[in-house]
Amino acid sequence: MIVAIGSIRREAAGIILSGEYTAIEAPEDFVAYRPESEDYPAIVLSGSGSVRAARATKWAIEEFSPEAVISFGFCGATKDYARSGDIVIAARVLDLPGSPFEWSIVDDTNSLGPDRTILLAARTAVEISGLDFHHGTIVTISKVATTSGAKKWLGEAVNATAADTAAHAIASTASAAGIPWGVFTSVLDDRDFDSPGVVDRLDSGPDGRGNMVYIKHVSNTPQDLPALLHLGRSSNRASASLTTFMAAFVQAHTALTKAAQPAASE
Questions:
Q1: What residue numbers bound the domain in which 34 lies?
Q2: pTM of the entire structure?
Q3: How many domains does the chain have?
């Protein structure tokens, strides 16, 4: 079985609806779903942030004993060619801790590379499904990059293709357990898009802040309404891409794994 670790329900909504899942009990306020068939991955949603992602991944490994761990979810583009709904396949994941004021010194010694079979399955999945995709470094930062300036800097100084707040923690936890892993994200916001600060969900749970928070924000800051509506449409595209990708990925990974079994037994 594959376990897919995400952050929020919105990222996983389409995947869950497309398969047969049963909600199971999970620690803290994590959300977990067990599939009725191994044609679908188990899903664990940790909420935002690396600390929560690492704890959820450790629990998921103990609970499911997976053959592979996948980090999935939304990301921010850090290159000008990436668009909302594009899939980003991580060739490497890099952790960049601290605040943006501490990013001037980039240490890439904690860079990690994914499993080759998982990477091949991901490339097969996007080609079969016809999704637009990019292959590059995903950088994990401690706080969502909401400004175009921060995203541009990450793209130039780190040569990252996208930024998130959890992938490196999931990858390093899986690596420590000796489990193959991969990281696949869907672009939510373009590099040059400035998000309203209210979208920063650091350390909140899988359900997020709720609509009332955004309604209250718009009532106080009505000029942010167009940007929030734009993000809503982008979220729909990003979620749809993740749903299409995950179905194709699991099929491709199963086929590649089965094809490799006879050779491994010889």
A1: 2-265
A2: 0.90
A3: 1
